[in-house]
Design goal:
α5 packs across α7. The radius of gyration is 17 Å and the shape is globular. It is an alpha/beta fold. The chain has a single domain, classed as Creatininase (Rossmann fold, 3-Layer(aba) Sandwich). Strands 2-1-3-4 form a 4-stranded parallel β-sheet.
Length: 221
Amino acid sequence: MSLGSHTSPSLAGGSHTLLIPLGATEQHGPHLPLDTDTRIAAAVADGIAARVDGTLVAPAIAIGASGEHAGFAGTLSIGTRVLADVLIEIVRTAGPEFERIVVVNAHGGNAYALRAAAATCAAEGRSLEVWSVRLPGADAHAGRTETSLMLHLAPEAVQLDAAAAGNTEPLDELLPKMMEGGVREVSPNGVLGDPAGASAEEGRALLASLVDDAVVQIAGG
């Protein structure tokens, strides 16, 4: 259930798990919308809430740490430090009605901020838990994996006629160049992977796998 749909008295005295979808507003090649990561994070959070009692879904944080995508039109970023501070302040101000706070993260570039925020929160005596998208064998960005997920979640937002392969080298091999010059340094069209073969059916299965993985972490099964 959505946190925003509650009243304050309806939550008072409760013991809830708060899910915070965390995405990004950044280029996803020529065929996927800028809010791809945010839509995926929100869909996973909704899937968790449908299966785990006592979970509430907060409004998504839709701008994250996306500096590696600078230079592509439409990309916005608040950077690692600010994102970490945002998360820390949410945990600091959340009341006792939230027994657990879990970030549901769908953008790899947020990882540094999440680690920093979790460490600070732990030092202050309150846990910030993190679940991040992980799909073995998936391509890195705007390839078949994310295209399939979006064909399932929002097919009207996918421009398949504009889809094109980008750099398909393993991410580990691309990271040194990306650290210096961002995604544009290794992929002029912003894609890390190949969207060919993507389908809504595959996206449905991928989303189910992500929700299953998150439920195991959050509910233990």
